[in-house]
Structures are given as C-alpha cells and as structure tokens.
Automatic annotation (TrEMBL), chain A:
Species classification: Bacteria, Pseudomonadati, Pseudomonadota, Gammaproteobacteria, Alteromonadales
Record-annotated membrane-spanning stretches: 86-109, 237-260, 280-312, 413-435, 441-461, 507-525
Domain of life: Bacteria
UniProt xrefs under Pfam families: bPH_2
Name this polypeptide is given: PH domain-containing protein
TrEMBL record, chain B:
Keyword Hydrolase appears in the UniProt entry: no
Keyword Zinc: no
Sorted UniProt keywords: Membrane, Transmembrane, Transmembrane helix
Protein name per the record: PH domain-containing protein
Superkingdom of origin: Bacteria
Pfam families (UniProt xref): bPH_2
InterPro entries for the chain: YdbS-like_PH (IPR005182)
YdbS-like PH domain span: 99-175
Species for this entry: Alteromonas profundi
Transmembrane segments: 38-60, 72-94
Length: 548, 184
C-alpha cells in the first residue's frame, strides 16, 4: 500500500456547502464537477469520523457489557460511596479510552476510489483490506447519523451480493461525494448489464434517452400521522428494545416503583389469599392495558425512529427511499431488481384501511435476517389502499392486486388440514384425558381444535391465485390478507406437488421460486396447474429476459 | 427487450433423449441409477445394525454396572431402532425408484416422492452454477449427484441424485455449454 503524504481531508477537495440542501434536491444538481476517482493517493476521512468511531466503539462495548449490567448494578447499590466514586472514575476512563480508540481507528483508516475500485484499509489490531470493484457492488446505502447532519457528512454502505461481512463502509464523506459515488456505481451496473445481457440493452438505452432530462419524482411521502398509525398497527417495539437493552434493569425498577405509586403492589397481591377473583381479574386487566399502551407507545417511537420523514421517489430506473429520525438513511433499488410486490394487511390494518407495501429484491445468501432497513426489501409503511394500488401500478404497470378473478383453492384443503391439525390432536388428547380421567383437558382440547378449524377455514377462504397473461397474483392470509404480484418471467424454478390423495382428486399444489423467496399455492385443479406451469416456463424460456 | 434472434427462431422445448445427447428426439422421464437405491437401503440397514450392536455392547459388557432401568429398556430400544431402520429402508426401496429426471432443450425436470410426488422444473436460463457432488459411498458405487444452483437460494437447489458419473458430467457439460449459461 502506498500512503502518500498528500492525502488530506476529503472536505478540503470537496467543499461541503450542501448541508442546507433538502435530500430530494440532489436530482437537480449537476454532479459532474465532483471528482470521484481519488487517484493513486490514499485518502483519510473527514475529522468528524473520529466521533463516529467513538460512538461505534461505545456501542460495541455496551453490547458486550449487557450481561455484566445486573452485576454492576448490584455492586453499585451495595458498595460504599467512596467505591462509587471509583466506579464513576472508571466509567469516565472507559469513555476516554473509547474516544482515544476512536482517534486511533480514525488514523488507521484509509480509503481510495480508483479505477472503478473502492479500496479500504481499516482496523487497529486486525488490519483489514477491502477491495471492492464497482461492478460487484449491489446496493449503495447512504446514512446520515444525526451528528453528521449539521456538517453535511454521510456514511456510505457498499453492499455486495455476497455475505454481510463483505460489505464496506466509507465512514465520513461529504454528502455530494456520496451521492456522486452512488450514481457512478449504479451507472456502472447499468453499463455492465448492457454488455452482459444483450437483450436488456435496448431497454436501458431507451430509458436513458427518455428520462435523462427528467428529475427525481417523489412518489410517496409519509406524514407523522401515517407513521404513528404504522407504529400502532405494526409492532416496532423491538427497534427500541434493541437500542435500550443496556438499561433494562433500571427501566424495570422504575416501572415497579411507578406501579407501587399507583397503588398496585404485586407482592401484596400474591401474598393475600383473600382477594376476590374479580378483583384479581380487574388488576390483571388494568396491568394488561397499561402494558399494551406502553408497548404501543414504544412501537410508535420505534416507527418514528426509522420512518420519520419517509419519502419514496423514482429517479430514472431506480427507486429511492429516505427516512429516519436520528439516523437518516437512503436506500436505492433498481426497478428491474424488484422481484415481487407484496401488499400486507394485518387485522388492525384492515380496520384502519392501511396497507404495508413491500418491494422485494433478491435475498442474497447468508442474509436471512429481514431487517427493516435492508435494501433487499423496500417498505412503504401504512399507505392507504388506494395509494397501495397506485404504487403497485407504478412499479408493475397494468397490474391489479385487488382483482375479482382469484381462483380459490379447493375445499379439500380445509379437510386435509382440519384432519391433520385439529381432529388428530383432538383425538390423541381426548384419549389421554380419558386415561387420566380429566374432563377439563378434553374441554381445552376441544376449544383449541375449534379455533384451529376456524383459522384453517379463514386460510382456505383467503387463498387464491390469478394470472392475467402478464402478472401472477396470489392472495393469502388468515385474519390479515397479503396480496402478492410478480412477473412470471422472473421465476427461478417451478415445482408442482401432489400427494397421493390429491392425485386421486386431480388436485395439485404449485410452488414458484423467485430470487426473493418462494410462493406456494396449494390445492388447485391439476389441469390449471399444468397449463400454468407450462405457460410460465414458456414465459421464462422464450422471452429470455434477465431477472435482475 | 427480446433478443432479435429469439424472435426469428421459433421457440422449442422438446425432450432430449439422453443416450444420443446432441440429437433431439422425443422421450420421457429417465430413471436414475438403480445402485442409488442399493446404497440407501444398505446404509439404513448398516446404521440400524451398528446402533443395535452398540446397545448390545453396553448391555453385556462386564466393566461397568448399567443401571437397571437402562437394562430393562434395552429390548425396547433395539425394537424402536429396528423398526425405524426398517421403515427407512422400506421407504428407500419404494421411493428411490420414483426419482426420475428429464433434460429438455430449455430446462431440467425432476420428479420424486412416494406419497408426496413433486415435479420440479429448472430453466437452464436461470442457472447460476452447476456442481457434481460425490460422497464416499456414492464414489464407491460410481455415482454422483448433480447440483444446479439458481438465484432461488440454497433451499431451492435443484439436485438430481444417483446419476452414473459419466452421465452427471455429461449433463453438467450440457448445461455449461448451453447458450443461455455460457452467454454470461
């Protein structure tokens, strides 16, 4: 590696006067005056990166120390005051240590963008060298933590198709530089695609001509109200829970104190035998309500953290999503990468007439966790039903999710699953109950069986599929409903499944394997499945369009 | 958006007879090697026997006193293992002959399953890479399995087991030479 003495701050070369710009204005800029290629010389990050490294180190340490928290808390409570001052001093020392390590990390970090490669040297004890060619970068995510924002800096996350450990972060670069880098990387993709797949060439060129003059179009914005609704209908508690993990003990102590203030004393409740059952029930109910509203509140907070200021926009052939309160994130996805649209409606969403819309990209191997901010799955949170239809038409023109011609699955689906998950366990538990002579057990088993029959019936009622010659649609769900829509030519594999019984009844299940996952529709007429599989295979093999 | 030569060239996807690979002829699903069943059945039997042998060894060895509940459970344990092993062997006897495959111009098909029969179709256009896999036993029997990977993920790897090595190589080469795969 050659670290030239001339390597200075990026900010010296690229003035960061863009901090006052709105995020959506970037499409209007003429970015050509920004040089991406840093030449042979290695670059150091902007000074603000020290802060980032410090925060990251503290975060890592806090995660490591979670298990030590109870022990620390106990020693903190029991120790004498003189010991406590040591503890404070120790804490302060740790923070200083982290700051110093942040400084060292900053000095050990160097990067360069050269000849269509991003190269990064990083790490203090274990040095790491990352060399990422532009064409291997799948997604470019731009994040701006709140302490970066006043200075106009961003964190660029370069995502490869491979494992999570292969991703590279350029920790602090000016926003304009980040946007230009992203533009060039995505541009690179386009040119790579046009040379690799001759069939997409015309399309890409056409789009270039049509849209190069157009600027970014905002397709959807979410107001704070929408996000609050999203927080209530979708449990986003874990966003807060994850962040607050180090403080659990304090929080629980606080809650029990607060409950005691309100006259609810758990210890007394359990201790006294004389409490009437309805009083007990009332207490339990009140507790449940308090807990539920607390969860809802936390969930709304979590939703606001991730989705505050949500915008979805389209720029040329890609969709860009921006959101976040403390950490503003920007994820972009090429339109052609979208494998499937899914519109999901839970029961609460149904009441409020809202839909969560997902644009699903390929799930690369090793990344099984479907995180919210994942670029593999772009979410439009809690849109209205009309907006969902409009947006799905924007991504897949001519599609209609809420169609009336869904072919329902056969009633034998109910029969099959009722026998399997309701009747069979019921018989087993009942015979067990007869053995131990416990009628209560049989009663409970009966209740559970009824419930599962109801759920199976709902599942059967919802499940169906449709094909309009261009798109395949699947409707499914139990209490909520999901609508899925995908283009047959993007399929990776088709599987037809039949049990011995289904074969006799001329029924079959069909599984469509897409790069974003598989979709199964069971108990369809066999003739329909056969013709569908043939049509779909013909679509894939005759159009020979790329799935990416 | 559609390649110009696919428009002029009529679409075809006939079944390719495997014995005369380059020439296309009508044909149906082809069975995999019968040795695959032999391997699986003997493997089930061998595992059962080994487990029973281990139990017996523990039961009759003079070194350590085995607790009496364990002594009592010995015949039951042997019975359970024998029944499971027997069922496994029986399953392979009937299921392995049901595994059949076909290579067509544009895709690979695989049919398998005794009670749940499934027919999977993998368009060659979507193949990302191909592997032949050989375990120690299959190597002994001169067999290999062909694994075809697509972007559908590892759970949906298309695998044809129990192919004679030459056939597996032949199929692999056919896929690699396929214009849709070699174009990338």
């Amino acid at each position: 590696m050659s670290i030239s003495p001339s390597s200075g701050d990026r900010s010296a070369q690229v003035p960061h006067q863009d901090s006052h710009l709105e995020p959506n204005d970037e499409g209007n800029q003429k970015p050509s005056d920004i040089k991406i290629d840093t030449g042979d010389s290695w670059q150091r990050l902007a000074t603000i990166a020290i802060f980032y490294f410090t925060v990251r180190n503290i975060k890592n340490m806090a995660q490591g120390l979670i298990y030590a928290v109870p022990a620390l808390a106990i020693s903190f409570n029991q120790a004498s005051s003189s010991f406590n001052t040591y503890l404070y001093a120790g804490g302060a020392g740790l923070v200083i240590l982290m700051a110093v390590s942040g400084l060292i990390s900053f000095f050990m970090y160097r990067f360069r963008v050269h000849n269509q490669h991003v190269e990064i040297h990083s790490g203090v004890f274990s040095r790491k060298y990352t060399n990422l060619p532009f064409w291997r970068i799948q997604n470019v995510k731009i994040e701006s933590p709140f302490y970066y924002r006043p200075f106009g800096y961003t964190l660029v996350v370069l995502d490869t198709a491979g494992s999570a450990s292969e991703e590279a972060n350029i920790v602090a670069v000016p926003k304009q530089y980040a946007q230009e880098l992203r533009r060039q990387v995505l541009e690179q993709y386009k040119s790579a695609d046009t040379t690799a797949f001759a069939d997409t060439e015309d399309e890409a060129l056409c789009e270039e001509h049509l849209e190069s003059t157009n600027d970014e179009v905002v397709l959807n914005r979410r107001s704070v109200g929408d996000i609050v609704i999203h927080g209530i209908t979708n449990n986003r508690v874990w966003i807060i829970l994850g962040a607050a993990a180090p403080f659990y003990d304090d929080v629980f102590a606080f809650i029990s104190d607060w409950l005691a203030d309100k006259g609810l004393q758990l210890n007394q409740l359990v201790g006294e035998q004389t409490v009437l059952w309805w009083q007990m029930g009332l207490y339990a109910f009140v507790m449940l309500m308090i807990l539920m509203s607390l969860v809802a509140l936390l969930s709304v907070g979590g939703a606001l953290l991730t989705f505050y200021g949500y915008t979805l926009s389209r720029h040329q052939d890609r969709y860009i999503r921006r959101s976040g309160l403390l950490n503003k994130q920007e994820v972009s996805m090429r339109a052609s990468r979208i494998q499937m649209i899914s519109a999901k409606q839970d029961w609460l969403d149904k009441v409020l007439k809202r839909v969560n819309l997902y644009f699903e990209q390929n799930t690369s191997a090793g990344k099984q966790v479907q995180e919210l901010m994942s670029p593999n799955r772009m979410i439009v949170p809690s849109v209205t039903e009309d907006e969902a239809l409009l947006l799905s038409r924007e991504v897949m023109p001519g599609s209609n999710l809420k169609r009336s011609d869904y072919i329902p699955i056969n009633k034998r689906f109910m029969l099959h699953w009722t026998a399997l998950i309701a009747v069979l366990p019921f018989i087993v538990v009942c015979s067990l109950a007869a053995w131990v002579n416990d009628p209560m057990l049989a009663l409970i088993a009966g209740g559970v069986a009824c419930l599962s029959i109801a759920l199976v019936t709902l599942r059967w009622w919802r499940w169906g599929m449709a094909y309009d010659g261009q798109y395949l649609y699947v409707r499914r769900g139990r209490i909520g409903v999901d609508y899925l829509c995908f283009e047959p030519y993007k399929l990776q594999q088709v599987v037809k499944k039949q049990s011995w019984f289904m074969r006799r009844r001329k029924l079959a299940s069909v599984k469509f394997v897409l790069a974003s996952g598989s979709v199964t529709v069971p108990f369809l007429p066999e003739a329909y499945v056969n013709s569908l599989v043939n049509k779909v295979l013909f679509d894939v093999e005759s159009t020979r369009k790329s799935w990416m | 958006m559609v390649d110009t030569d696919t428009q002029t060239e009529p679409f075809s996807n006939r079944v390719i007879a495997l014995d005369t690979l380059p020439t296309f002829e009508g044909g149906a699903l082809e069975a995999i090697s019968p040795r695959y069943r032999v391997i699986n059945v003997s493997l089930s039997v061998a595992i059962t026997l080994i487990l029973v042998a281990i139990f017996t060894l523990i039961r009759w060895q003079p070194l350590v006193d085995v607790p009496s509940p364990l002594l009592l459970s010995y015949p039951y344990a042997c019975m359970v293992v024998a029944v499971l092993g027997g069922l496994g062997a029986l399953y392979h006897v009937f299921a392995d002959v049901k595994i059949k495959y076909a290579l067509r111009e544009q895709d690979l098909c695989l049919q398998k399953g005794l009670i749940f029969r499934q027919l999977a179709c993998q368009p060659i256009l979507r193949v990302q890479h191909v592997e032949t896999k050989r375990g120690p036993l299959t190597r002994l029997a001169g067999l290999a399995s062909l694994q075809v990977f697509s972007a559908g993920g590892e759970y949906h790897t298309f695998e044809i087991p129990g192919l004679p090595v030459a056939r597996a190589e032949q199929l692999r080469q056919f896929i690699l030479n396929h214009k849709d795969v070699s174009a990338k």
